[in-house]
User: Fold this.
Amino acid sequence: MSTRSRAARSKQPVVEPTLSCHYLEEPKLQFADGREHVDPKIGILRYGPKTQSDGSRHPASVRVGFIGTASSVESAQKWLEESSRGYAGDEKHPEFPGFMGDRGFFSSLSYDSQWISQITQSEVADLQNPRLKRDRFDNLLSLIDGKLNTLSGKDFRRNMSSSAFRRNCTSSGGLLSSKTKRLELFIATSIALSKRLPCATEFRRKFSASGRRSGKMLTTIRKLRGTSITGLYFKAGGFPWGPLGLTPDSCYLGVSFFRPLGSKSRTVQSALIQAFDHHGQGLVLRGPDFEWDQDKEGTPAPHLSTELAHQLVDLALEQYGREMDRPPQRVVIHKTSRFWDAEKEGFESAIKKRVRRYDLVALSYQNAIRLMPQSNYPPLRGTRFSIGDLDFLYTTGFISELGQFHSLHVPSPLQIADHIGSDTSREQILREVLILTKLNWNSARLGGSLPITLRFSRLVGNILKELPEGTQPLTNYKFYM
Assistant:
């Protein structure tokens, strides 16, 4: 290159990317009688759950049964009764109104000695006999599963499902009646063995998977306050709150992956898709297994071929139409990795057979780019900023409407790594993401970092991978909370 050419190039102006920043207001939620608030806890306290006035969905009563030793059943019931009465608030925390017929969720807990399956001292001794922790683990799981099945077989004139509960070393299951609109919650208290379980998380996961095989609904609840009560109410058929601002007749799909347990090849992956409508009703579907060699492909994040991407979305939209009694008018697909060309082709071809409007959105975790406010407060949740054609959104941060910060970590924004489709503005896409972070009915927290389409993908994957090959998983989202 000549000296003149180099000089001419050095004089060319450097184009710096522009930075723009603005704020998306905190989305409101809908509660009883159409009343609104941004905070689930305050909304429930002031107005009651969204479906309180809907007799077809509102569960007015919850029957509670127990599985455990005599002492553990007694302490569990005492703790449940105390917690369901509610707790006073303070300057930093709103009052928890409890789970009572005249306040809070306007539903009550009921008990009966027939709904208790006691674990005897001889059974406890038998559990302690095996030398290996793994054997004690398997025997405990089998014992509690058998006790739950015994209770499930009693004639309570109901359809079978269940819900799980854990406090320290406890698990549970419950039963939902479509006729009585009441949820039966069976609390299976794990035995305090002389040596701890090898993995309490694995125990809950395997117990949950056994519930999926038998048609029971299982989950994990750590505290019987706002967190577990909202999940309990949702499993019983009600909606604690509802979203406002989602595009009507839109189907929101979240695509993720997990590796099935027991697979002979470490390269086998299975696809998982979670679907939600604009009311928040959800489905969970397991897609096809496929080979993914991260060494060969150069990335640990799995990607679908054109054929598999088409098959997965086709499965989701077909099931969505059956479950929701209507086809969607718009489809939004969320992933945490960028869309490869083959995936994009497969997703688009499957969508266009049924729907004209669609958006493919990749939401990536990142911490390389953050805002540094001049104040002493973290960035506001709902802050959107753009650097050139790159978009970022804070889904955690300081909540201006409440004057509070609801996180223990320095917030990082999500990056919108891909947006394919021109039917929806980028601002509307981001508003929908912010709304979907507030649809975790297993928690009374204001919001999470990821939308509900992706938030529970790891949890659901851990449950589905315990199911034997060929087992058809239940599709209703509440079975996995």
User: Anything to note?
Assistant: The chain is about 30% helix and 25% strand. The domain at 243-480 is CATH 3.30.420.10 (Nucleotidyltransferase; domain 5). Confidence is low (pLDDT under 50) at residues 157-184, 188-200, 210-226.
